[in-house]
Design goal:
Bound molecules: adenosine-5'-diphosphate, magnesium ion
Structural class: alpha/beta
Radius of gyration: 26 Å
Distance between the termini: 34 Å
């Protein structure tokens, strides 16, 4: 454990008594540590009751991290309710107030798409649903209602207003709320019912928000409203780490917050990075200096130079996953534990092959997308394989469809080999209609099936398969060495690990294919790469593939060159 000697800026931010404060500081400068210490200070030194405190951050993992730090410092005497995400705060308010309808449920992804398709039918609009849905999500985060859009001069906006309206009605009828409603509805509630607003305003004497650069307009307005009575709003963030503009985040509001919120807003900057080695910081700073829209900040560190960053080149995506797994084995032989290590990916679709490589190398890992062999699709595939080989169909599977595929692929009915049974099952999974899946999920499913096939290839029969899965589960249940963390870069925000591996540094992956054309989006991709590499304390590995999907060439990411020039 590192010795912590607070610097003067940190001390000031922790012990600040009343009035608004903005802590706009560099990565790894102790913003989250200061937020945690400030909560303790408010309770222990200023006698604030924990029920009168509200601390908000973005990711669930970050909430858990802050709660566990508080638990340690306050000897378990923690009111966990005071630390939450914006969305869980909204959920709690809606539940407590029974608004807009009591007993509502949160819509799940597939269900949401279903309802949205119905709304499009009702509005008689034929377009790519996910695109329209994300435009509605952005509108809600920007506090734009269907009637605002209806007044617009743009025909596109008026069209959107129609679907938006139908979608809201359908949800209301089914007593469902979506993720964005968890912010939008409490805001509406507060605007409509002063009595309720006043209750929360008087309750929350101090409001603290971490990662404020990722707040959307509705979030900003919510905390502004809530802090009106006591005027104790404390915000920490770093515009270089703003990675949610696709969901309406407005780091511009954060950057100019002190000027707009009120003249007594105090600003603190912390420029000392305590997290990473000089080599990692040098690369991170060189990379982010390529962004044009940013607040320039000084960054200093007393940390050692550390090891050089390693850039790994693989021929293709399978080889790359293998390289990642091999590096993890090497790191462990150097003395690192599995839970010192994180693999951070830009998109979920990089996960299946990496999982397969980790399973092959007997590396125990936490996957925030669910384990390959525990997925429902994988289990269905195994059931089908068993049925086909034993010739004894079981319930739940469309035997007609299966029969047709079987006849189509193999004319011999009786004897189906292990490998053939997988082919038929995979074909079944790709044909079987599933209304709740969107395009992205379908693609992901097929990648997980490919990864599963890759793992199956050396096996001979169902007994081997059963042994194989048992072994993978056994490996993952061993916790003595912790687990490698496999997650998306978005999920890793605010966290830190001794060793970080970032695969898929290719054009089209990071930067993402949809973001290459526009400067604002490209800059957000660069911030994502920046967030990924600044999670690392000691060791950083970046990898790319020269080919993928059997294509002849895939370019390395421009961000690799930008690490050093
Ligand atoms: N004054 C300090 N002395 C030593 N380590 C510190 C100090 N301040 C912060 N740290 C450590 O630096 C790391 C980064 O802190 P964190 O609060 O996560 O930064 P941020 O939220 O700004 O990215 C943590 O490991 C934290 O314990
Ligand atoms: Mg932080």
């Amino acid at each position: 454990m590192k010795e912590i000697q607070l610097n003067p800026q940190q001390l000031e931010a922790i012990s600040h008594r009343d009035g608004p404060m903005v802590v706009l500081s560099v990565v790894g400068s102790g913003k989250t540590m200061v937020l945690t210490e400030r909560i303790i200070h408010l309770i222990e030194e200023y006698g604030i009751n924990p029920t009168n405190l509200l601390a908000i951050t973005f990711a669930k993992k970050a909430v858990l991290e802050i709660q566990s730090r508080l638990e340690k410092r306050l000897n378990g005497n923690v009111d966990k309710a005071m630390v939450c995400t914006f969305h869980s705060l909204g959920y709690r308010i809606l539940k407590a107030e029974g608004y807009p309808i009591s007993g509502f449920r949160l819509v799940h992804d597939g269900q949401q798409m279903n309802i949205f398709r119905q709304a499009m039918d009702k509005a008689d609009i034929k377009e790519e649903p996910s695109l329209l849905l994300s435009r509605i999500s952005l509108a809600k985060n920007d506090l734009i209602s269907p009637s605002d859009l209806e007044k617009s001069d743009e025909p596109e906006d008026r069209k959107l207003s129609k679907v938006y309206c139908c979608y809201e009605l359908l949800k209301k009828r089914k007593r469902l709320v979506d993720f964005d409603d968890l912010l939008y509805l409490p805001y509406q509630l507060f605007r409509e019912d002063k009595r309720i607003l006043e209750y929360y305003q008087s309750r929350f004497q101090h409001i603290l928000v971490d990662e404020f650069q990722d707040s959307s307009k509705v979030m900003v307005e919510l905390v502004k409203l809530l802090s009106e009575t006591h005027n104790n709003l404390w915000l920490a963030g770093d515009d270089d780490q703003s990675i949610h503009s696709f969901r309406g985040a407005r780091s511009d509001i954060f950057v100019s917050f002190d000027k707009e919120y009120g003249s007594n807003t105090k600003t603190i900057t912390m420029s000392h990075n305590y997290r990473s080695t000089k080599n990692i910081l040098k690369a991170a700073n060189t990379l982010i200096s390529h962004n044009k829209v940013r607040v320039k900040k000084e960054m200093v560190t007393n940390n050692e130079d550390g090891e050089e960053i390693e850039i790994l080149e693989a021929d293709n995506e399978i080889e790359e996953a293998g390289l990642i797994a091999n590096r993890i084995v090497d790191l462990c032989s150097e003395g690192y534990r599995f839970n010192d290590i994180a693999i951070l990916v830009r998109v979920h679709r990089l996960m299946p092959l990496i999982e397969a490589a980790l399973i092959k190398e007997k590396i125990s890992y936490n996957s925030y997308g669910g384990f390959l062999y525990n997925r429902r699709d994988t289990k269905t595939v195994i059931t089908i394989m068993k049925d086909l080989i034993s010739g004894d169909p079981s319930g739940g599977i469309d035997t007609d469809l299966l029969g047709r595929i079987r006849t189509g692929i193999f004319d011999h009915y009786e004897k189906i080999s292990f490998a053939e049974s997988f082919d038929i099952a995979a074909c079944y999974m790709s044909i079987k209609p599933n209304d709740e899946e969107d395009e992205e999920e379908r693609k992901l499913k097929s990648l997980y099936l490919d990864a599963f096939e890759y793992l199956l290839s050396p096996l001979q029969n169902l007994d081997d398969l059963a042994d194989f899965i048992k072994e993978a589960q056994r490996v993952n249940s061993i916790s003595s060495n912790g687990k490698v963390n496999l997650m998306t870069i978005h999920q890793a925000k605010g966290l830190e690990f001794k060793c970080v591996l970032v695969p898929g540094l290719n054009e089209g992956i990071l930067p993402h294919i949809n973001s290459i054309q526009q400067l604002v989006n490209l800059e957000e991709e660069r911030r994502l790469a920046y967030v990924a590499i600044t999670r690392a304390m000691e060791r950083l590995f970046i990898s790319y593939r020269r080919r993928q999907n059997g294509q002849p060439i895939t370019l390395p990411s421009r961000f690799i060159a930008e690490l050093s020039a």
